[in-house]
């Protein structure tokens, strides 16, 4: 009969045994990784809340100052003469404006040249107003078209063109900037002369045909249009002059764009307060706040039927933020009369009556807001924008609180998320350490099983040898028995 050793042999599934042993050892790692994944979900949930509160902060920033919530519109009774627009700082009312003259840029025209005739060699000295003159070289073969190209390339603030009438070529110069202070001055130094004051540089031959000395007497070019300032009258105040046709400093907060002049026609500019900007920005705040409310409700949700809970159900930080936001919405602004010191007075109220149970959502009653704006605009604007110490407006007060929640160093969310991240990091280090130990354990088991298989191999060899010996003994015994 054969000899066996408890069923052990070198053919056993060593890898399978090691794998099962490692799976048992790895169970604590799986538990830690599951816990780590839970914290990651919480971290993501806080990130969603942080994003929502950032949107609330942006909306409050747009409500914080008077300039951000006050807008005006302006209309002209004669848009053929002028148009008007209003900005912050405007005062509602009607203004009478007369456009006496428009601002203009100077235009000059030369005498007749031919297409291919050389103008004359030398240097043009071209300046606009008090700017330093720019020197423009003219070669002996340059035509009037070449001169125009050189002037344009110089960037002196003058536009040059050539107007053609049959075989006659005229150089035209136009200043690029309106206003009496921006007159064009063009002097020349012809080849062979040393100064523009030389009589040869002032006659009407060669390059001197283009001279127009605005400060002197030599004007060989013809002025087609002078450099003029705009001239308007506002409510009887005459001779208000500006260098351009866009005037933004004659009527506070109002920009006039002049289109035509008529000294006999008075234009009425009507400036009205526009409440649409505040309404729009208040709606943006309500929308941003409601998005945060939805986030808070989802994170704290509880279904009594399924007992399913939100990601941050029962979280004290979430409850504290919710309570803080609710108080900011409901608390009054000091320094304002009753009926004008609560957000609800402006038509913004919670949609649910049980704001304590959930993160209540807001709704804006536009009719209520418009009524308050029409009758008490100053108080409404102070409610949102007051910066007075101790009686800060709703927007400033809530903005400060939201910024504190979001502060990247000491904010409520920052402190909480840093704590969660620290826990995640710690769990991650535990997993790394345990994986290192698990790998070492696998190496140890492989070494032990390898040694075991060597021993089993030795046992098998001994067993085989003993079996052979017993077989030989049996054969000898049988042979001796048969010979007797």
What report would you give on this structure?
- This protein has 484 residues and is of the alpha+beta class.
- It has three domains: 29-67 and 277-415; 79-103 and 229-264, no CATH class; 107-225, Alpha-Beta Plaits (2-Layer Sandwich), CATH 3.30.70.
- The chain is built from eight helices and 17 strands.
- The strands form five sheets. A five-stranded antiparallel beta sheet has the order 1-15-3-11-12. It has a four-stranded antiparallel beta sheet with strand order 7-8-4-10, covered by helices on one side. Strands 2-14-13 form a three-stranded antiparallel beta sheet, with no helix packed on it.
- A hairpin with a 2-residue loop joins strand 11 (230-234) and strand 12.
- Helix 1 (14-61) runs antiparallel to helix 8.
- It is elongated.
- Mean pLDDT is 87; it is low at 1-8.
Write a compact overview of the structure shown.
This protein is an alpha+beta fold and 484 residues long.
Q: Major sheet, described briefly?
A: 5 strands, antiparallel
Structural class by secondary-structure content? alpha+beta
C-alpha-based Rg, rounded:
46 Å
Count of folded domains: 3
Poorly predicted ranges: 1-8
Order of helices and strands: HHEEEEEEHEEEEEEEEEHHEEHHH
Spatial strand sequence of the major β-sheet:
1-15-3-11-12
Silhouette:
elongated
**In percent terms, what proportion of residues is strand?**
15-25%
β-strand number? 17
Query: How far apart lie the N and C ends?
Result: 25 Å
Mean pLDDT: 87
The helix count comes to 8
- Portion in helices: 40-55%
Topology:
Blueprint: H1 14-61, H2 66-69, E1 71-76, E2 82-86, E3 93-101, E4 107-109, E5 122-128, E6 134-138, H3 144-154, E7 158-165, E8 168-175, E9 184-190, E10 222-225, E11 230-234, E12 237-242, E13 246-251, E14 254-258, E15 267-274, H4 276-299, H5 316-330, E16 348-350, E17 362-364, H6 366-385, H7 394-406, H8 412-483
Helix pairs in contact: 1-4, 1-7, 1-8, 5-7
């Amino acid at each position: 009969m054969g000899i066996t050793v408890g069923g052990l042999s070198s053919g056993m599934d060593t890898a399978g045994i090691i794998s099962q042993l490692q799976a048992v050892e790895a169970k604590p790692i799986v538990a830690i990784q599951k816990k780590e994944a839970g914290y990651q979900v919480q971290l993501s949930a806080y990130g969603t809340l942080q994003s929502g509160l950032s949107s609330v902060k942006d909306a409050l920033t747009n409500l914080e100052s008077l300039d951000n919530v006050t807008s005006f519109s302006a209309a002209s009774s004669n848009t053929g003469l002028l148009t008007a627009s209003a900005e912050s700082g405007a005062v509602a009312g009607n203004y009478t404006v007369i456009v006496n003259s428009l601002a203009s840029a100077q235009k000059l025209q030369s005498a007749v040249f031919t297409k291919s005739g050389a103008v004359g060699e030398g240097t043009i000295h071209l300046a606009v107003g008090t700017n330093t003159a720019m020197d423009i070289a003219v070669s002996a073969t340059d035509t009037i078209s070449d001169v125009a190209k050189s002037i344009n390339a110089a960037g002196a603030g003058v536009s040059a063109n050539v107007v053609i009438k049959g075989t006659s070529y005229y150089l035209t110069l136009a200043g690029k900037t309106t206003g009496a202070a921006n007159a064009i001055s063009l002097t020349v130094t012809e080849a062979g002369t040393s100064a523009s004051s030389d009589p040869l540089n002032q006659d009407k031959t060669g390059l001197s045909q283009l001279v127009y000395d605005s400060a002197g007497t030599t004007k060989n070019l013809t002025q087609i249009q002078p450099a003029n300032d705009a001239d308007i009258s506002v409510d009887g105040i005459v001779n208000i002059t500006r260098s351009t046709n866009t005037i933004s400093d004659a009527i506070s907060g109002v920009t006039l764009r002049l289109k035509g002049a008529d000294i006999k026609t008075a234009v009425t500019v009507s400036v009205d307060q526009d409440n649409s900007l505040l309404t729009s920005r208040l709606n943006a705040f309500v929308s941003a706040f409601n998005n945060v409310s939805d986030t808070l409700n989802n994170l704290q949700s509880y279904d009594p039927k399924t007992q399913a809970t939100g990601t941050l159900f029962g979280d004290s930080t979430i409850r504290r933020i919710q309570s803080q936001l609710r108080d900011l919405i409901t608390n009054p602004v000091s320094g304002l009369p009753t009926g004008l010191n609560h957000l609800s007075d402006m038509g913004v109220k919670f949609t649910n009556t049980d704001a304590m149970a959930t993160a209540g959502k807001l709704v804006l009653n536009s009719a209520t807001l418009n009524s308050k704006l029409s009758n008490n605009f100053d108080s409404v604007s102070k409610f949102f924008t007051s910066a007075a110490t101790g009686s800060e407006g709703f927007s400033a007060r809530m903005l400060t609180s939201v910024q504190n929640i979001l502060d990247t160093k000491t904010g409520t969310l920052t402190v909480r998320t840093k704590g969660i991240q620290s826990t995640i990091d710690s769990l991650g280090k535990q997993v790394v350490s345990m994986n290192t130990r698990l790998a070492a354990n696998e190496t140890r088991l492989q070494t032990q099983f390898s040694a075991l298989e060597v021993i089993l191999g030795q046992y098998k060899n001994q067993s085989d040898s003993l079996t052979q010996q017993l077989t030989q003994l049996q054969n000898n015994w049988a042979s001796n028995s048969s010979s007797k």
